[in-house]
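Why should sequence recovery work at all? Because a backbone constrains its sequence more than one might expect. Tight turns favour small or flexible residues, buried strands favour hydrophobic ones, and helices have their own preferences. The token representation captures these environments compactly. In the example below, the structure is given first.
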């Protein structure tokens, strides 16, 4: 009975080790997603710069006829959409990271208790 119990426990430890490895991989993936999402802020910066440039063109009497107010408004809308998408991606990545950290902690505790 003891040998059977030890064998069973050995199998549970092996499963827990696999769960731990998976949790570590998920955390690495979540960290990469978060880094990628944060790099999207460059797109937001570019969109902001485009809006600023167009605003200057509209205000300048020499170029105001070449840029319409609706073009500026359209650029602003696009900038807002880019900013919202970037923020959404960041929040989703942060959520994934927290979930992966929680799973990693649980897997570590499970393995520790089995050992």
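From this structural description, the recovered sequence reads:
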């Amino acid at each position: 009975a003891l040998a059977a119990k030890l064998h069973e426990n050995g199998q549970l430890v092996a499963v827990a080790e696999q769960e731990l490895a998976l949790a570590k991989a998920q955390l690495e993936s979540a960290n990469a997603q978060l880094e990628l999402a944060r790099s999207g802020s460059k797109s937001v910066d570019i969109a902001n710069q485009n809006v600023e440039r167009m605003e200057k063109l509209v205000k300048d009497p020499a170029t105001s006829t070449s840029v319409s107010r609706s073009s500026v408004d359209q650029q602003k809308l696009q900038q807002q959409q880019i900013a919202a998408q970037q923020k959404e991606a960041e929040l989703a990545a942060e959520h994934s990271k927290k979930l992966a950290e929680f799973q990693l902690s649980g897997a570590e505790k499970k393995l520790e208790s089995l050992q």
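A few observations help interpret the result. The helical segments are 2-39, 41-59, 69-114.
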